[in-house]
Amino acid sequence: MYGDDGFYRSPTGPAGHFTTATHGPTGRVLAEALLRLATENGLTHVVDVGAGRGELLTHLYAAQRASGGGSPTVALTGVDVVARPDGLPDDVRWLHSPGGAALPDGLNGLTDALVVAHEWLDVVPCTIAEVDDDGSLRERLVDPTTGTEAWGDPVRGDELTWAEKHWPTTQAETRVEIGLARDLAWLDLLSRIDNGLALAIDYGHTAAMRPPLGSLTAYRDGHQVAPVPDGSSDITAHVAMDSLEHDDVVDQRTALRRLGIQTRTPPVTLARTDPAAYLSALEQASAATALTAEGGFGDFLWAFSRRG
């Protein structure tokens, strides 16, 4: 996915294949909530890790200008595997990342920063394992051209320790998506923050709701496809959010409601007195509803970790 011709380096970017909460009207509402989170915590820098083509950063920049009426007071930085996107505001800093779990050397010593990893960890590769008929947890190997799976070695060492602590199972044919690589990537990110707040937002689960058959899948051209690791699609597996170093884990609808995001539609009378304001408020309410919907974006999990 991160190679020279991989999915994440394609000209269209992820937005050419699927929509995330950072795109369009939902992105505007999410940006407003994140700015409020930064302001409430006295933070003056927002870093977007896995920034795609700068969609969330663009919304953050616009939200600041709309609220402040002048130049943004919160610094913005994007991190992704591609070069700086065309059209990104000049005030926004951009760091080129190696991809996957690796982060750029220039991302360090962050102070007074809100560091947001929105759908980053779910595409950090992790070991997929399954319990065989003898009750042993073994790696699943995959043919990179066909996606055909085969049995690999038993899981050992730190990965086995992780599985026994966070995803214990001995039932045949149950899967474990071993999150150690994600935990280590997250710890690397945390080590770069001198003081501030780190926030992982992702498809995820906790110990009470692990998916017994796993969650490994792929997306391309707007469709869910077989997870063949040939670089042509986005391969993803949900994140064990509670295994990450964290102070709190809540679902997105709870987090956004805490930040004052409302789904209430505007009164119809506003349409008669100020049609433009009515349409704007209606779009805001619709986006907020989408961001907090059960079975959709509202089921995302937010993991917070305070630093310094």
UniProtKB/TrEMBL annotation:
Instruction: State any GO BP term from the record.
Output: methylation
Which InterPro entries does this entry report, sorted A to Z? Answer: NDUFAF7 (IPR003788), NDUFAF7_sf (IPR038375), SAM-dependent_MTases_sf (IPR029063)
- Keyword GTP-binding present in the record's keywords: the answer is no
**Which keywords, in A-to-Z order, does the entry hold?**
Methyltransferase, Transferase
**Recorded GO terms, molecular function?**
protein-arginine omega-N symmetric methyltransferase activity
Record-linked Gene3D superfamilies: 3.40.50.12710
- Keyword Hydrolase part of the UniProt annotation: no
- Top-level taxonomic group: Bacteria
This chain belongs to which protein, by name? Answer: SAM-dependent methyltransferase
